[in-house]
């Protein structure tokens, strides 16, 4: 395995570094039995940028090669598939923005100011019901 097909852009590494600086290293880097990073490439890059010599890690040496490949894909894709409850997001960002003693920038959440502004003024619209996606199984060649 040669890393992950997902890319962590430089500005995202800056966001991760800011989060680590503010909240600490709260999510370990996941390694295989040989010490290769399976998940947490962005966290490792951010830690390096912050000058950290060590980071929390968790070894997943119980996974075989196929499971490791599948896990790397799942870790990135499942996170990318995450959705938001728009109303709850608006409420949470609004509460942070209104916090009188807030001693950090709300952008630490990963949302940029123009995006936050749009979320805060967005009127809740009824969602259109969609048909659920069809599941497809990838067949392996015999």
Summary tags:
5 helices, mainly alpha, 3-stranded mixed sheet, 142 residues
Protein architecture, described:
With 142 residues, the chain is mainly alpha-helical. 43% of the residues lie in helices and 6% in strands. It has 5 helices and 3 strands; from the N terminus they run H-E-E-H-E-H-H-H. Strands 2-1-3 form a 3-stranded mixed β-sheet. Strand 1 and strand 2 form a beta hairpin.
Over the alpha carbons, how many angstroms does the gyration radius reach? 19 Å
Give unreliable regions as ranges.
none
Helix content: 40-55%
The biggest sheet amounts to:
3 strands, mixed
Summarize the structure.
Helices cover 43% and strands 6% of the residues.
How does the SSE layout of this entry go?
Elements: H1 10-23, E1 29-31, E2 37-39, H2 41-49, E3 57-59, H3 65-80, H4 86-98, H5 113-121
Parallel strand pairs: 1-3
Antiparallel strand pairs: 1-2
Helix pairs in contact: 1-2, 4-5
């Amino acid at each position: 395995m040669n890393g992950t097909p997902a890319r962590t852009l430089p500005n995202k590494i800056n966001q991760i570094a800011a989060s680590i600086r503010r909240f600490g290293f709260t999510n370990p880097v996941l390694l295989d039995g040989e010490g290769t990073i399976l998940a947490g490439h962005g966290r490792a890059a951010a830690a390096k940028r912050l000058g950290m010599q060590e980071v929390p890690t968790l070894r997943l040496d119980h996974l075989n090669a196929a499971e490791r490949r599948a896990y790397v894909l799942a870790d990135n894709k499942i996170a990318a598939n995450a959705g938001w409850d728009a109303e709850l997001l608006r409420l949470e960002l609004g509460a942070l923005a209104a916090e009188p003693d807030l001693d950090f920038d709300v952008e630490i959440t990963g949302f940029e100011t123009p995006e936050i502004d749009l979320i805060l003024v967005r009127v809740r619209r009824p969602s259109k019901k969609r048909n659920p996606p069809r599941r497809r199984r990838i067949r392996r060649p015999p």
